[in-house]
Amino acid sequence: MELVSYVTPQWTASVQSYLGAVGIRAKVNQMQVAAAVQRAWEGRNPLYMGSWGSYSINDVSAVLPVMFGGGSEDYTRDPELQKLILEGGATTDEATRKTAYSAAIRRITENAYWLPLHTYVTIYGFSRQLDFRPYRDELPRFYLAKWK
Fold it and tell me: In the prediction, which pLDDT does 52 show?
């Protein structure tokens, strides 16, 4: 089975190895990002390994609408799931959001719609002579750094 990927070849090879361990022979097709994404949007990737940074916002409202909201990244096209995601995103009431998004995550998990494989941390080295401030969204603002 073809495994289309644009992520680091070492990570893709690891996934290929794990698939092989459970009897799935995957032939890796390492592509440029745009080409792999285009094929994904067209539904032509039998297996697809990509990544999603959710614009560095660690919140379900940044991830779920893209992956399961009915757009080009949504492989499930599950109307019930789309309804839950819309419900969670349509309010600022914390209890309502929690109920809707919890139900959405439960549905995703129970149906194995999505399989997050890994996460990674970006580490920046810097000198004590550099005035550098890290931000919670993990986007370094090097343009704000200056020498002390």
Answer: 76
